[in-house]
């Protein structure tokens, strides 16, 4: 199952608190989409849970919502936050330690 670091949870909470919906119902949503080269790409958005989604309760009450294909892709990953080149927080996905590569 996707792991969410405390830092990532903090950023998710900041984002959802600024969203239009009720913060308790909104989470960071991952969806799998094909890019122009027919390769899988993750799309991020703030959204409420839709039937069939998998929800991960993260530290500090943050919520990560994943469509089924994204949940399968992210099952052995860790969601973290790093600073981008401008010093802004950017989500980063890495393989969980101790997981075999396939």
From TrEMBL:
InterPro entries: HesB-like_dom_sf
SUPFAM superfamilies, per the entry: HesB-like domain
Protein name per Swiss-Prot or TrEMBL: Iron-sulfur cluster biosynthesis protein
